[in-house]
Amino acid sequence: MFNYFYNKSLRKLVVGFGSLFNDITVQHANPDNINSPTTIRVPITYAPQEKFIRRLLEPSSIQDGTRIETQLPKMSYIMSSLNVDPSRRRSKSFEVKSYDSSPLGSCDQSSGVEIAEEVPVNVNFTLFIYTRHVDDTLQIIEQIIPYFNPDHIITLSFNSARQNINIPLLMVSNNISERADGDFGSRRLNVSSINFLAKSYIYGPTRQFTSIENFDIDLDLEF
Predict the structure, then answer these.
(1) What is the phi/psi pair of residue 37, to 5°?
(2) Looking at residue 175, which CATH number applies to its domain?
(3) For residue 73, is the peptide bond before it cis, meaning its omega torsion is within 30 degrees of 0?
(4) Does residue 202 lie in a domain region?
(5) What is d(CA 83, CA 139) in angstroms, rounded to the nearest whole number?
């Protein structure tokens, strides 16, 4: 029953979620040219908040304020929980088939890949935003919120039988806070978090199938 298989369903969802925020940038005033602000791309990585802050604030030969200034802004995210969603569950008789394509582009109805097990899941993600300046936080949040009204759709291909599946992403909540260690002049870190819900799926193993197209019946009847 429990034979090994791995569709990378959750891995693809994690990568797909993180890739949404790859191109977020902030702008800082350029003292040399006020009409040409400096644009900074905000890097993102998969890491929990506690680990990220500890690494950022660990002792260094560089002055604390200078080090934080050069390393921020940054973002990180984690998959915080996973729950089965019975409301989206379909009948156990539900089955998906993906037919093989011929070299000429037509669909061969005699063979392909099928998958019967489909489990709808709700996956919660938390996106963390780390900045030195409050204005950086506001710039980042303003670039995110308009795309989740009320949700944002990403399209993923989970396996050979389930291609181009639309996954809704909903923004659930957000929190903006400031963390300060020591005096405000030496060290300052703004930490914000946004919680998202992805309505995704986990699929069972795929298997090849072939269809019977023709059959002969030899009847020997006597009257």
Answers:
(1) -65, 155
(2) 3.30.2000.40
(3) yes
(4) yes
(5) 32
The answer to whether residue 139 is domain-embedded is yes
One-letter amino acid for residue 11 of the chain? R
Kindly indicate the confidence band of residue 30, based on its pLDDT and cuts at 50, 70 and 90. Answer: confident
Instruction: Using alpha carbons, list the distances in angstroms from residue 188 to 25, 33, 81, 131.
Output: 21, 27, 30, 9
DSSP reduced 3-state for 133 = coil
Please provide the size of the chain in residues: 223
| Domain containing residue 148 | 9-208
In this structure, of 12-16, 87-91, 134-138, 185-189, the range with the lowest mean pLDDT score is: 185-189
Task: Examine residue 214 and state whether it is found in any structural domain, yes or no.
Answer: no
Q: Which of 64-68, 88-92, 125-129, 199-203 has the lowest mean pLDDT?
A: 64-68
- Among residues of the chain, what percentage have pLDDT more than 90? 41
Structurally, the chain folds into a number of domains equal to: 1
